[in-house]
């Protein structure tokens, strides 16, 4: 997809959540199928809707802004998961169009073409692996267990931090996730965490679904 000036838009397509989030990354191609299977149906939702309806989010077409890596978050802390993960600035794999999640399963990736740490509007997107055959559980292995009210903290490049509270945990078939909603650059500021979930297909070595957690600034 191109913007008004004809330049390619660095916006992840649906493939981003078909392959890249929660997969094992191998070789120069960058993406391979997920090859690990945790016990049970990972990400089974128990809280599937916000405690209150989220405001509508306006979406505008056009080229994405230049990446503002200087405003990228550097760490993500989730006390309920006993998680503190390094956050790396990532974009879109030019060969696959997928979200370029960091290869290390214990690290997570911030989408550098979207809102950053100090954003006052839009969705700050952070995605991470659920697991890998080689390295075991990923940073977001237990993301699907978060509940409304759980706290999440982002650390910024200047040492400051922003506190968020979970308002929703949802699970979608990868072919049905509303990407525009979760990658919006407008509307109320929120933090969006994404990983794989649902049943694991032993034939394709992929999870069927995506788990998406939404959090809003704590007041």
UniProtKB/TrEMBL annotation:
Composition bias type Low complexity, residue spans: 61-71
Superkingdom assignment: Bacteria
Gene Ontology molecular functions: hydrolase activity
Parts forming coiled coils: none
The UniProt record lists the keyword DNA-binding: no
The entry's keywords: Hydrolase
Location of the region described as Disordered in the Swiss-Prot/TrEMBL record: 42-71
InterPro entries listed in its UniProt record: Sortase, Sortase_dom-sf, Sortase_F
This protein's name: Sortase family protein
């Amino acid at each position: 997809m191109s913007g008004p000036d004809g330049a390619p838009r660095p916006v992840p397509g649906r493939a981003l959540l078909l392959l890249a989030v929660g997969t094992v990354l191998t070789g120069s191609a960058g993406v391979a199928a997920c090859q690990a299977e945790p016990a049970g149906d990972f990400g089974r939702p128990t809280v599937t809707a916000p405690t209150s309806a989220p405001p509508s989010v306006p979406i505008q077409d056009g080229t994405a802004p230049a990446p503002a890596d200087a405003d990228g978050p550097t760490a993500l802390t989730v006390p309920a998961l006993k998680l503190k993960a390094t956050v790396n600035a990532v974009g879109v794999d030019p060969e696959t169009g997928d979200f370029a999640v960091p290869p290390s399963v214990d690290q997570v990736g911030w989408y550098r073409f979207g809102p950053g740490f100090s954003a006052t509007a839009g969705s700050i997107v952070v995605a991470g692996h659920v697991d890998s055959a080689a390295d075991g559980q990923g940073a977001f292995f237990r993301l699907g267990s978060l509940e409304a009210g759980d706290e999440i903290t982002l650390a910024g490049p200047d040492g400051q931090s922003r506190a968020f509270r979970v308002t929703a945990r949802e699970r979608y078939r990868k072919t049905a996730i509303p990407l525009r909603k979760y990658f919006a650059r407008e509307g109320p500021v929120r933090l969006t965490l994404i990983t794989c979930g649902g049943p694991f297909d032993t034939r394709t070595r992929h999870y069927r679904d995506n788990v998406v957690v939404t959090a809003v600034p704590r007041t």
